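User: I've been trying to design a sequence by hand for this structure and keep getting stuck. Would you show me what you'd pick, starting by listing the structure so we're on the same page?

Assistant: Good idea, let's start from the same input. This is the structure you sent:
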């Protein structure tokens, strides 16, 4: 497992601020880390599945996503983007089964 210096520094900052407020209990520090969003696993991110795309599929996804943003009216563009994300995610998750 590799480390992420940016996340480590962010966690250290949250812990330091929590301790400065008088928190010394591990549970209190953990609550503050969670509140800062630092306890989420990377795979829970909304586009974590995109890391599984090969270069051509990622290029297709980004190109299609860009085209969807040009659709009018905007609410239809957003619906189109949601559908695009859903279909690519399902393809990735279906291929991993």
């Amino acid at each position: 497992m590799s480390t992420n210096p940016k996340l480590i520094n962010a966690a250290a900052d949250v812990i330091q601020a929590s301790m400065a407020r008088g928190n010394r209990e591990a549970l209190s520090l953990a609550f503050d880390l969670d509140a800062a969003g630092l306890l989420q696993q990377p795979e829970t991110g909304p586009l974590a599945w995109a890391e599984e795309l090969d270069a051509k599929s990622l290029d297709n996804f980004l190109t299609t996503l860009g085209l969807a943003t040009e659709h009018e009216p905007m609410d239809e563009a957003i619906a189109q983007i949601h559908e695009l994300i859903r279909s690519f995610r399902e393809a990735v998750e279906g291929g991993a089964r």
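That's my pick for every position. To get oriented when you compare it with your attempt: The chain has four helices and no strands. The chain has a mean pLDDT of 80.
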